[in-house]
Each structure stands twice: as C-alpha cells, then as structure tokens.
Amino acid sequence: MHIEGGCHCGHITYEAEVDPDTVGICHCTDCQHLTGTAYRTTVRSHKGAFKLLSGQPKIYVKTAESGNKRAHGFCPECGTPLYATTVGNPEVYGIRVGTTRQRTQLRPKRQGWCRSALDWVMNLESLPQNPRQIAR
C-alpha cells in the first residue's frame, strides 16, 4: 500500500510502501513516554520503500531494554515523531501511523508489551464519546 505523510507543521514530508498487516500497537513504557500518551501505533516500511520528500528529521538514539539502539526521527521544527529504525544501516522503518494521510486505513493487527499497558486503555467503549472537543 502506498502512503504519504509528514509532520504537523509540514516541514517534513515522506512517502512509503507499507504492508497494512504490519500495523501494531506498542504499550511499552518507552513508547508511552516518547509519545506522551498511552501507546504508539506504527506500520513497517522496508529500506528503499521509505523516502523523505522534504526536510530532514532530527534523530534521537535511545537504548531499549534489550540493549538495542533505536534511531527515532522527528521534526526539528514542531517535534512530531515520524519513525524509528535501527542505528547505522536502517532495514525497516516503524512509521508513526498518526503522521500518515491514510491513517484511517491502517488498523492495528497486533499489540505488544501488553504487560506495560495502562489498565484503562484496553476497553474505552464505556466512556462517553463526543464528535469534537470535550466541553469543560
């Protein structure tokens, strides 16, 4: 599937070929911390199938619990997280689904690190739903 996307301010744009069956949710505490929310949703794109069209991301390298290093690309202007990949010679990019124009078509197929999931996130159906911002 062909996707296009970019950061919130438009400084960085990209296109990629992805397999929608690789969309996943990660509940690890690093993803919670790096996103500022309950989990991260990504879709995989392989080397050569991910192409930056404009801008250059800033890279933050973090070390995972396993000891593996991951390069996180984000917009240096607005801070939007765009992807994560291996350090040095990227083979697979974990593109942040929220940055894609086709995000409604990229439904998660799996979840990982569920032992770290916030207890309330696994069932949101009982919460009141509003079509726009919640009035306070």
Mean of all residue-level pLDDT scores:
94
What's the shape?
globular
Computed CA radius of gyration, to the nearest angstrom: 15 Å
Unreliable segments of 5+ consecutive residues: none
What is the name of the CATH architecture? Beta Complex
Beta-strand proportion: 35-45%
Given helix and strand content, the structural type is mainly beta
Provide the number of structural domains.
1
Biggest sheet overview: 7 strands, mixed
N→C terminal distance: 40 Å
The tally of helices reads: 1
Count the beta strands.
10
Describe this structure in words.
There is one protein chain. The chain has one domain: Metal Binding Protein, Guanine Nucleotide Exchange Factor, Chain A, CATH 2.170.150. The longest helix is centred in the first third of the chain and has 7 residues, at 29-35. The termini are far apart. The protein is mainly β and 136 residues long. The protein has one helix at 29-35, and strands at 2-6, 13-17, 24-26, 40-46, 50-54, 58-63, 69-74, 81-86, 92-96, 110-112. The strands form 2 sheets. A 7-stranded mixed sheet has the order 6-7-8-9-4-3-10. The model has no long low-confidence stretch (mean pLDDT 94).
List the helices and strands and how they pair.
Layout: E1 2-6, E2 13-17, E3 24-26, H1 29-35, E4 40-46, E5 50-54, E6 58-63, E7 69-74, E8 81-86, E9 92-96, E10 110-112
Short description:
With 136 residues, the chain is mainly beta. 5% of the residues lie in helices and 38% in strands.
